[in-house]
Amino acid sequence: MNKRKIVFISLVVLSFGSRIAGETGPVSATVPMVLDHNRMTVEIAFKRVDGSLRPARAWVDSGGTTVIAAEALARELGVDLSAMPAGSAQTFATKTAVPAMSLGGMPLDTEGMNLSVRSGRFAIPGVQAECILPARCLRRLHVVFDYPARKLTVARPGALKPRGTAVPCRVHPETGLFMIEAMIEGGKVALGVDTGSAGTWVSDKLTSAWLAHHPDWPYVVGAAGSTNFFGFPFETRGVLLCLPALAIGSVSVDREVAVLGLDQGIFEWYSQKSAAAVAGFLGAELIARFRLEIDFPAQMTWWLPGPPAAARDLDIVGLTLRAESDGSFTVAGVVASGGQPLVDGVQPGDKLLRVNGLDTMNAPMGAVIDALRGKPGDVRLLLLERQGKQLAVRATVAPLP
Questions:
Q1: Is the model's pLDDT at 290 over the cut of 50?
Q2: Range(s) of the domain holding residue 254
Q3: Hey, is 168 helix, strand or coil?
Q4: Strand runs (DSSP E) across 194-299, as ranges?
Q5: pLDDT confidence of residue 234
Q6: Which of 62, 160, 263, 303 is the most buried (most CB within 10 A)?
Q7: Eight-class DSSP state of 164
Q8: Is the pLDDT of residue 126 over 90?
């Protein structure tokens, strides 16, 4: 081989290497994640107007499409909030572009996005995070949701060697939401993969069909455990049951999966931001059983099982809780079986002040839900407030459903 060819090949290799390594940042970055109610938060950094970095705790929501910041964070970033209604509990869509964001030094995709803002301490009640990091910001990366190791890795495509069983997915090119096909009860079901949801929700058309085919399957009405997302009114009307098994590609999920069957219209709305129509989404209670990788541009996932959970999701006091903006928790509903509430002495609208020794005010939602869990037959002492008066209720942990 002559010298000219050697020089040419060397230049090609160097050029390829520089594209992979990048002159403007690292090839990959790994940061610790914190899990609460199965939902992950990580530290990211925003670039202020003066070029300095502002660290922020972000909720990683692969089912979300919008960067939402708590008001205090937005003001620190110099966002003009003069038109924002005072004390509004709704998100306020600004005309300010999302500032440059990075995770462990890796740039995140904010192209064409404007920032939304919410008043209060957090970007959304129930998640102790200053901002929401949606799938839209990850759509050009290879991402590892390593739940067993409590780590999140973002990398440039081609920089990582995948681990686990490969399962194709579909990715919406604009929103970044991704979906897979699962085998449930002998049929294929299109489902989103939603790290932002604590548990798995599906269309009531599916739950009705499963119960018609398996009339012996127990079920209750009302969200509990992982399926209690934020305590939306419709959660109290959902049909809660456990799937004995399902499969994601060739990956078998043999331990039961709690699912909440909800109105089909919810998933028609969700499908509008997905790559295709879905009949529900896998939540983090199931996803957290795995080290999950996704190469967004290649539309491929890899699933590597982790250790089994220490406690059953639905051995719990049957309450649906709603996280409030002020850090308190309200009973949105009481789980019912055969039309009868499973927890005596508790009413929708009650404020939940304490569970045993846990003061719920400003507590993470996961800590409150965990405090309701236990071994069937265990008793939890609930301190409630109703119409300005406090009352104590002894509630029994039950094996739902």
A1: yes
A2: 162-305
A3: strand
A4: 200-203, 220-221, 239-243, 246-248, 251-253, 257-262, 280-282, 290-295
A5: 98
A6: 62
A7: S
A8: yes
User: Does a structural domain hold residue 235?
Assistant: yes
Task: Print burial letters for 137-153: b (CB count within 10 Å at least 16), e (below 16).
Answer: bbbebbbbbbbeeebbb
Residues 170 and 275 in one domain: yes
Q: Which residue has the tokens 């399962």?
A: 167
Among 154, 173, 197, identify where a domain stops.
Answer: 154
The structure's pTM equals 0.91
Contact 143, 103 (CB under 8 A): no
Residue 360: give its domain's CATH number.
2.30.42.10
Given 282, 305, 328, which residue is the final one in a domain?
A: 305
What are 266's two structure tokens? 């919810």
Do 113 and 193 have their domain in common? Answer: no
Cα–Cα distance, 191 to 169 (Å, whole number): 10
pLDDT of residue 308: 87
- What sign does the CA torsion over 351, 258, 64, 279 have? negative
Per-residue tokens: 210: 């499963």
Separation of alpha carbons 30 and 141, rounded Å: 13
Sign of the CA dihedral running 263, 269, 275, 281: negative
Q: Of 27, 63, 68, nearest to 46 (Cα)? A: 68
Q: Taking the CA of residue 264 as centre, how many other CA atoms within 13 Å lie in the half-sphere pointing to its CB?
A: 5
Q: Which two tokens stand for residue 6?
A: 């050697």
Cβ 343 vs Cβ 374: under 8 Å:
no
The 8-class DSSP code of residue 284 comes to H
Instruction: Assess if residue 369 is contained within a domain.
Output: yes
Q: Are residues 371 and 291 in the same domain?
A: no
Tell me, what's the pLDDT at 24?
60
pLDDT at 120: 85
Contacts for 132 with CB less than 8 Å, ≥ 6 apart = 58, 59, 61, 64, 66, 67, 68, 69, 123, 124, 196
Do the domain assignments include residue 4?
Answer: no
How far is 74 from 392, CA to CA, in rounded Å?
A: 40
Question: Pairing between strand 251-253 and 220-221?
Answer: unpaired
Q: CA 38 → CA 16, 194, 354, distances in Å?
A: 39, 11, 21
